[in-house]
Amino acid sequence: MAECVTIPNHILSAIASHRQVCSEPMAAFFYDLPALAAQGRAMKAALPAGVELYYAIKANSEAAIIDTVAPVVDGLELSSGGEITRACACSTPRPWVLSGPGKLDTDMREAMTRGVEAFHVESLGEVARLQAIAASLDHLQPVLLRINPALPADLSSRLRMAGTATPFGIDEAHLADAVRAVDDAPNLTLVGFHVHAMSHQTCERRHQRLLASYLECWPRWRALAHQPERVTQLNVGGGIGVNYLQPSAQFDWPGLCEALGERLAAMHEPPRVRFEIGRFLSAFCGYYVIEVLDTKVSHGEGFLVCRGGTHQFRLPAAQGHDHPVIHLPCDPERAIEGERRSWTVVGQLCTPKDVLSRRQEMTGVAVGDLLVLPLAGAYGYNISHADFLCHPRPEQVFVRDSHESRELKTRGQRHAETAS
């Protein structure tokens, strides 16, 4: 699996430079910011005319990541008060929307006072609360209603957000009531609909069919509004998956965009479509680097016990996959001549669930070698239980260019460091 992934030379140089200043065995994240910007530009360039790309910052909300993505995308999608703070601190101000269930009144009020573009409304109760807050501020607020639609029976994914019983959105059967509630709210304006039905989609054709089902429903949904001419936006969410098991076989984003453009061109009064992409934007820029502390064999199975673990990089355990692993030996010649065998990569936690990857074939692995887990830029460190067992938090190195100028974030403190 690892042979499908290569590590850029400037990331290898950053890893080597960082290791020289480590007083303890290494566990750190490295983020390739030029690669992140390039991924965003490529995704944006593939979009049909009039289709927008927002970054869902829940995938990775580190300041350096947001600052790199913001100049490239059309805006940001947020889901909490904390994310509002981070987005508003961005060096390149961008439009932003507030989504998600369980919004606090304080978050909604703060969002309005800080210039939120629109809210994605999840329930009739949220319509009422949003109207009350907007009225108290004498503010006219655009909103999109999030729909939990009926879906074709054969369309499913590992993580369904709609088409079944979920806490997300308003059942399509009750959409007319929700539209009426917004139309009757003097401080709210319905401008569109939001549908995010499935995550971890790795097949372009399946996602193309999913978007087609939304667009087929669009005229019917729009006609429910008292003033349908004001309803122009269709936010189709994200859900584009990353193929961690076959890194060389990724989602065909240009193919999806081409098919979407053809369908929109054939529509009478098509909506302004917006994507909110997180994982597929930021995953490819990240590398989790851990040092081998011990090698052992238990009941015939080889284990590499490494600094760090799932408390720092929860992604493999959360998704139930064996992450690709790249071996960086301290002594390449020794590694070539060493034994080739299957290893299970684990961390330092006192639980058998602390597994990053099972049965990876590697040659000549020894204590002190480094292992690199690529595709670690999204839903990795930021969803992890970093305080478990009170281990120190991993360092995060943001590599800004091939000359290794980088920003280092260590245990909540941020400072600038330039490699010699």
TrEMBL record:
It comes from the Bacteria. Residues 37-283 form the Orn/DAP/Arg decarboxylase 2 N-terminal domain. Its cofactor is pyridoxal 5'-phosphate. InterPro entries: Ala_racemase/Decarboxylase_C, De-COase2_C, De-COase2_N, Orn/DAP/Arg_de-COase, PLP-binding_barrel. The keyword rRNA-binding does not apply. Residues 284-377 form the Orn/DAP/Arg decarboxylase 2 C-terminal domain. Keywords: Pyridoxal phosphate. The keyword Cell division does not apply. Belongs to the Orn/Lys/Arg decarboxylase class-II family. This is Type III PLP-dependent enzyme. It comes from Modicisalibacter luteus.
